[in-house]
C-alpha cells in the first residue's frame, strides 16, 4: 500500500504540540536567545509533566504494538510519533526543544547498547517526580567526525571492580543539565584499549553526582543558545563495573561492536535530527510567505517558470525542498517502525534536512532584505539556529559518505 | 497511515513493466534514438502490457480503475527502459485519459472502448505550443463559438504521430479557459507540418499541426456543451513527467555507479574519490526525495485531497530540476566517454532537459 495519511494519534498530538510551541516557546524565543545559559524551566516542567502522563520522551521508543478493535496488531508508529513531535517543537524553537527533559541521546545510547537490565536501571529516572536529563559525550577537541580518534580512556580496576575514566569531552549537548540539574546521566564513550582504534570504543553511563567528572565550560554559540553545550573533564572518575553498556561478552571481546553500537544509535536518531531541521525550515518558509503576502506578493502555483517572478520561483523551490525533505524523514522513521534496515534513508534524510534548512533560512533573509536581517523578527535567529543541523550527529559530508558507501556497496575501507 | 510499500497488485504491475523495460525497451534504445524510429512491434508489445486498460473501468472496455499511484509506478519503470519508447506506447492514452477524467458519459462510452480495446490505435492529443512561455493554462490556440459549432484556430507543436492519427484531442482556449476538443483528422483547415527535429526523444515522431478556422460540432467539447475542469488533466500531465523523469534519472544514476566502480584512476576506482562519491550520493538522495514527493502527489490526486493540484506542480518542478542535475552529473562522471554516443548517458542528459518544458507530452 502506498499511503500518506497522517495517523490520528499524530494529528491529535500535533494540535497539542502546536499550542505548546506557540504559547510556551515562541513568546520566550528571543529571551532565551539573549540570555544564553538561562534554563527554560517553565517549558521543562510542563513537558516533564506532559510526557510522564503520555509515556513519551525517549529518542528511542520501544513500545508493544497496540491492538485495534478486532484484536489485530496495529502497525507501530512510535518513531513516526517522535518525528512529528520533534518537527513541531523545533518549529517552535529548536534551542528550547533541546532542553526537553528525558533521556535524549543518552537514553538512545542506553537503548541501542544496553542489556534489558541496564535499560530498566538507568532509564527509570526519566519517569520520576522531577525532570532529569540524559546526554551523550563522544566528541573531543581532536576527534569530531573521526570518532575512533577519541582518547578518553577507561581502565578496569580489577581489585575494586570499577572502571576508571580519564579524558576530556567537548560539545556535549545538555551535558550541564544532565550532571548538575536533577538526577540525570551522561553516556561517555571511552576506549578500553587505545591501540585498537574502533575496536576499543565502549559506552559508559556516568550518573549525576558521580565524583571525578566536572563541567568545565559551557559554550557561547551562534544559535540554539537555550541549549547548554558543555565541556566535561573526567579525572579518575570511578564507575561500578555494571556501568559499561552491553553484555559481558560484548565487553570482553576486541570487536567493533561498541563502535557499531554508536553508529546504530545514530541511525535511529538521524532522521529525528532531519525532523528538527525541517521544523526550523518550515517556520522560516511560513513566516516568509506571510511577510510577502503583507506586501501583496502571492505565489501563483501552476505557472511555467517563464511567467514566475523571481520571488515566486524562490518560494516554490523552497516548498519543493521542504516537502521532499520532510517526506524523506517520514520514510526513514516508517522503516524504523517497520523494522526495516534504514541506514541509507536515515543518512539521506539528514543530508537533505541539513541542506534544506540552510538554504531556506539563507534565502529567506536575502529576500526580506533589511527587515530580514534585523532582530525585530525571529528570522535571523532561525538562520543562526539552522546551521548546526548540517553539523551535529553526523555532518552532511559524513552522511554523504554513508549514502555513497551504501549505494556503491563499499565499506569504510573502500571509500574514506 | 503512512506506507511506502507497493501492494501485491502494484508489485505485479512494476514487475511486468520492468521486464518489458529491461528485455525489450532498453536493448532497442540506442538504435531507436540514432535512427529516429521505435519499431512498431516493440510499441505494440508495450501497449499489450495493459497499463491504460488497467486504468480504465470495465464499463469502457478496461479492467481496472484510474489510479495515479499505479500510473506513476508504471511510468517510472517503463521510462527507465527508454523514454521515447514509453512516450510512444502511451500516446493513445493522451487521447483517452483526459476523456476518462473529464469527458461526459456519452463521450466516455463512445470514445474509450475503441482506444482501450484497440491494438495501439491511432489516437493522439495536441496541447504544446511553440512559444518560449508556453503555458497550458493560457493557450494561444483559440476555440470560439459560432452557432452550434466551435471554430478552432492556432498552431500546435510536439503532436506525436500526428501524421498517422485518426482522431486527436486538441486543447484550446475557449473564453479564456483551457478546454479539450475531440477533432477528427482530415477536416478542412487542418494542416500537418514536417516532422520536428529535437534535442532528444528522437525516436518519437512529433509534428506541428496548424488549425485554420477548423469547424467542429460543440458536442465535441470535452465534458459536453458546458465543458470541463482542466486542472485534473494538468495535474496528471505533471505527475506523468515527474514519474518518467524519475525513471530516466534512476537509469543514469545506475549507469554512472557501474562505470565509476569499474574505472581505474590514480591506483583506485573513480568511485573511491570523494568528489565523485559525493556527486553520486547527492544524485541518489535527490531521486529518493523527489520520488516520495511524486508518490504523495499521486496519492493526494487519487484520494481527492484539496492540495493535490499544488503538490503535483511541486513534484513536477522538483522532478524537472532533479532530472537535469542527475543526468548532467552522470555524463560528467563518465568524463570523455560520457560525451560519446556509444554510451547512453548523453542521450539521458538530452532527455533530462525535456521534463520542464514538455508538459502535455504524456499523461498517466
N→C terminal distance of chain A: 38 Å
| Fourth-level CATH superfamily of the largest domain in chain A | Butyryl-CoA Dehydrogenase, subunit A, domain 3
The low-confidence runs of chain A, each spanning 5 or more residues with pLDDT under 50, are: none
Rounded mean pLDDT of chain B is 97
Number of separate strands of chain A: 8
Summarize the biggest pleated sheet of chain A.
4 strands, antiparallel
Q: What would the CATH topology of the largest domain in chain B be?
A: Butyryl-CoA Dehydrogenase, subunit A, domain 3
CATH class of the largest domain in chain B: Mainly Alpha
Tally of separate helices of chain B:
11
Q: How would you sum up the major sheet of chain B?
A: 4 strands, antiparallel
Specify the structural class of chain A: alpha+beta
How does CATH name the architecture of the largest domain in chain A? Up-down Bundle
Radius of gyration of chain A from CA coordinates = 22 Å
What CATH first level of the largest domain in chain A would be assigned? Mainly Alpha
Category from helices, strands and their pairing of chain B: alpha+beta
CATH topology of the largest domain in chain A: Butyryl-CoA Dehydrogenase, subunit A, domain 3
Most extensive chain interface and residues per partner: A-B, 47 and 51 residues
Strand order of the largest sheet of chain A: 3-4-8-7
Helix content of chain B: 40-55%
Helix content of chain A: 40-55%
Q: Quickly count the helices of chain A.
A: 12
Amino acid at each position: 500500500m502506498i499511503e500518506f495519511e497522517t495517523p490520528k494519534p499524530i494529528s491529535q498530538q500535533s494540535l497539542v504540540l502546536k499550542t505548546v510551541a506557540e504559547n510556551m516557546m515562541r513568546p520566550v524565543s528571543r529571551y532565551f536567545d539573549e540570555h544564553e545559559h538561562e534554563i527554560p524551566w517553565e517549558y521543562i516542567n510542563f513537558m516533564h509533566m506532559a510526557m510522564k502522563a503520555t509515556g513519551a520522551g525517549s529518542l528511542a521508543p520501544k513500545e508493544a504494538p497496540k491492538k485495534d478493535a478486532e484484536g489485530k496488531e496495529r502497525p507501530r508508529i512510535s518513531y513516526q510519533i517522535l518525528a512529528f513531535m520533534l518537527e513541531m517543537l523545533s518549529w517552535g524553537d529548536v534551542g528550547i526543544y533541546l532542553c526537553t527533559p528525558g533521556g535524549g541521546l543518552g537514553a538512545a545510547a542506553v537503548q541501542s547498547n544496553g542489556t534489558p537490565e541496564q535499560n530498566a536501571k538507568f532509564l527509570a529516572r526519566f519517569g520520576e517526580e522531577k525532570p532529569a536529563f540524559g546526554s551523550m559525550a563522544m566528541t573531543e577537541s581532536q576527534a569530531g567526525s573521526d570518532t575512533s580518534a577519541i582518547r578518553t580512556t577507561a581502565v578496569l580496576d580489577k581489585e575494586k571492580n570499577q572502571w576508571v575514566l580519564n579524558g576530556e569531552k567537548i560539545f556535549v549537548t545538555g551535558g550541564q543539565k544532565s550532571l548538575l540539574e536533577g538526577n540525570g546521566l551522561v553516556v561517555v564513550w571511552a576506549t578500553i584499549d587505545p591501540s585498537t582504534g574502533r575496536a576499543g570504543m565502549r559506552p559508559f553511563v556516568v550518573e549525576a553526582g558521580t565524583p571525578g567528572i566536572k563541567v568545565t565550560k559551557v559554550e557561547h554559540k551562534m544559535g540554539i543558545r537555550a541549549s547548554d553545550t558543555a565541556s566535561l573533564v573526567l579525572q579518575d572518575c570511578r564507575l561500578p563495573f555494571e556501568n559499561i553498556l552491553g553484555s559481558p561478552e560484548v565487553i570482553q571481546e576486541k570487536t567493533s561492536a561498541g563502535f557499531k553500537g554508536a553508529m546504530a544509535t545514530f541511525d535511529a536518531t538521524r532522521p529525528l535530527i532531519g525532523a528538527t531541521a525541517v521544523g526550523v525550515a518550515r517556520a522560516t518558509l511560513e513566516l516568509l510567505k506571510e511577510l510577502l503576502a503583507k506586501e501583496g506578493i502571492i505565489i501563483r502555483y501552476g505557472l511555467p517558470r517563464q511567467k514566475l517572478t523571481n520571488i515566486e520561483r524562490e518560494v516554490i523551490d523552497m516548498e519543493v525542498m521542504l516537502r521532499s525533505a520532510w517526506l524523506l524523514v517520514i520514510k526513514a522513521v516508517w522503516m524504523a517502525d517497520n523494522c526495516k534496515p534504514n541506514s541509507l534513508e536515515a543518512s539521506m534524510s539528514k543530508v537533505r534536512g541539513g541542506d534544506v534548512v540552510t538554504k531556506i533560512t539563507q534565502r529567506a533573509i536575502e529576500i526580506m532584505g533589511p527587515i530580514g536581517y534585523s532582530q525585530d523578527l525571529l528570522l535571523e535567529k532561525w538562520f543562526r539556529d539552522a546551521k548546526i543541523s548540517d553539523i551535529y550527529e553526523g555532518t552532511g559530508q559524513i552522511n554523504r559518505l554513508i549514502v555513497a558507501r551504501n549505494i556503491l556497496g563499499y565499506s569504510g575501507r573502500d571509500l574514506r | 497511515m503512512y506506507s511506502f510499500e507497493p501492494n501485491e497488485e502494484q508489485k505485479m504491475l512494476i514487475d511486468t513493466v520492468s521486464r518489458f523495460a529491461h528485455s525489450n525497451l532498453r536493448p532497442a534504445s540506442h538504435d531507436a534514438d540514432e535512427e529516429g524510429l521505435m519499431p512498431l512491434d516493440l510499441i505494440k508489445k508495450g501497449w499489450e502490457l495493459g497499463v491504460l486498460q488497467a486504468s480504465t473501468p470495465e464499463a469502457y472496455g478496461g479492467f481496472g480503475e484510474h489510479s495515479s499511484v499505479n500510473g506513476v509506478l508504471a511510468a517510472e519503470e517503463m521510462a527507465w527502459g527508454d523514454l521515447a519508447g514509453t512516450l510512444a506506447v502511451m500516446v493513445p492514452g493522451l487521447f483517452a485519459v483526459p476523456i476518462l477524467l473529464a469527458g461526459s458519459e456519452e463521450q466516455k462510452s463512445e470514445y474509450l472502448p475503441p482506444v482501450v480495446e484497440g491494438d495501439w490505435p491511432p489516437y493522439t492529443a495536441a496541447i504544446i505550443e511553440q512559444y518560449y512561455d508556453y503555458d497550458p493554462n493560457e493557450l494561444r490556440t483559440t476555440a470560439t463559438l459560432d452557432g452550434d459549432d466551435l471554430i478552432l484556430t492556432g498552431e500546435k507543436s510536439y503532436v506525436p504521430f500526428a501524421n498517422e492519427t485518426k482522431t486527436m484531442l486538441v486543447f484550446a482556449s475557449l473564453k479564456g479557459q483551457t478546454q479539450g476538443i475531440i477533432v477528427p483528422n482530415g477536416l478542412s483547415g487542418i494542416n500537418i507540418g514536417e516532422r520536428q527535429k529535437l534535442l532528444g526523444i528522437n525516436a518519437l515522431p512529433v509534428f506541428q499541426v496548424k488549425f485554420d478556422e477548423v469547424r467542429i460540432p460543440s458536442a465535441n467539447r470535452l465534458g459536453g456543451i458546458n465543458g470541463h475542469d482542466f486542472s485534473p488533466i494538468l495535474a496528471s500531465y505533471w505527475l506523468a513527467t515527474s514519474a518518467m523523469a524519475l525513471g530516466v534519472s534512476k537509469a543514469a544514476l545506475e549507469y554512472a555507479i557501474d562505470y565509476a566502480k569499474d574505472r581505474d584512476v590514480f591506483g583506485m576506482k573513480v568511485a573511491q574519490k570523494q568528489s565523485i562519491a559525493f556527486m553520486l550520493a547527492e544524485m541518489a538522495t535527490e531521486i529518493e526525495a523527489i520520488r516520495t514527493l511524486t508518490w504523495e502527489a499521486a496519492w493526494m490526486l487519487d484520494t481527492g485531497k484539496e492540495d493535490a493540484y499544488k503538490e503535483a506542480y511541486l513534484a513536477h518542478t522538483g522532478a524537472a530540476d532533479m532530472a537535469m542535475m542527475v543526468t548532467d552529473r552522470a555524463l560528467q562522471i563518465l568524463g570523455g566517454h560520457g560525451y560519446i554516443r556509444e554510451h547512453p548517458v548523453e542521450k539521458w542528459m538530452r532527455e533530462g532537459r525535456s521534463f520542464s518544458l514538455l508538459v502535455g507530452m504524456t499523461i498517466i
